[in-house]
């Protein structure tokens, strides 16, 4: 795989994580249950770590990572998150679930790309994080944590 192809994929994943952080920031404004908030803040931290690690990989290949701003998909996700979050914890979690479905799909696809070994390890690690995020969010929705927090 050529460096330009690797860079394209890494930048795309990095932008995805940037958009996720913005969505998490919006959702956290509507989550008042301390245990849920702590977990969601932790997941936002994972996305921030992904951005840092992907950015480092991009720089090592001689390019600049995306700026910490939303792209078109990020604006759409942010608008969706704002609207869904208006209904409180339930809406915020459902918005995050949509975003995590997207990141899981994209990281799942990236796992099948013939990256160099270190890059592949990073993608695998990030994908495991994404799976963990989605699992927690789905369990929180299924168990209706907002009712227990009330």
Could you describe the 3D structure shown?
With 150 residues, the protein is an all-alpha fold. It has helices at 3-28, 34-60, 72-85, 89-110, 117-142, 145-149. It has a single domain (3-149), classed as Ferritin. It contains six helices and no strands.
Q: How do you describe this structure in short?
A:
The protein has 150 residues and is mainly α. It is 80% helix and 0% strand.
List the helices and strands and how they pair.
Elements: H1 3-28, H2 34-60, H3 72-85, H4 89-110, H5 117-142, H6 145-149
Helix pairs in contact: 1-2, 1-3, 1-4, 2-5, 3-4, 4-5
Helix count from the secondary structure assignment: 6
Fraction in helix: over 70%
Mean pLDDT: 89
Domain unit count: 1
- Could you name the CATH topology? Ferritin
Percent of sequence in beta strands: under 5%
Described by the principal axes of the CA atoms, the overall outline is elongated
Structural class by secondary-structure content: mainly alpha
Q: Can you summarize the main beta sheet?
A: none
Question: Oligomerization state of this entry?
Answer: single chain
CATH superfamily: Ferritin, core subunit, four-helix bundle
Would you count the extended β strands for me? 0
Architecture, CATH level 2?
A: Up-down Bundle
What is the CA-based Rg, rounded? 16 Å
The low-confidence parts are none
- The first-level CATH class name: Mainly Alpha
Cα distance, first to last residue? 52 Å
SSE pattern: HHHHHH
